Description:
alpha+beta; elongated
Amino acid sequence: MARKKVWNVWAKLRTATRQIWMWSPARREALKKAKIGKGREALYQCAVCPKQVPHYCVDVDHVIPCGEFSNYEQYAEWCYRLFEGELRVLCKPCHLERK
Ligand SMILES: [Zn+2]
């Protein structure tokens, strides 16, 4: 029998807040800094390996990982790391390796 999924406020906050971060000036700035070239041909320099990859192959990574939260105090700290933490652009394989 399928178990009913529990509505988890922390998981919802995580998803919703990350969605806001996706459009943050800090994230856009990080992408802009790593960008080489212009328009559709533009590539991004990975901060770890020598690869230069198109936009669909990059992830914006937090140098200090944001981690997890399961109460409101931790959520506030998590938000601080998410929005104020240092960012860098990684290619997807390098980002996967960090997880
Ligand atoms: Zn890389």
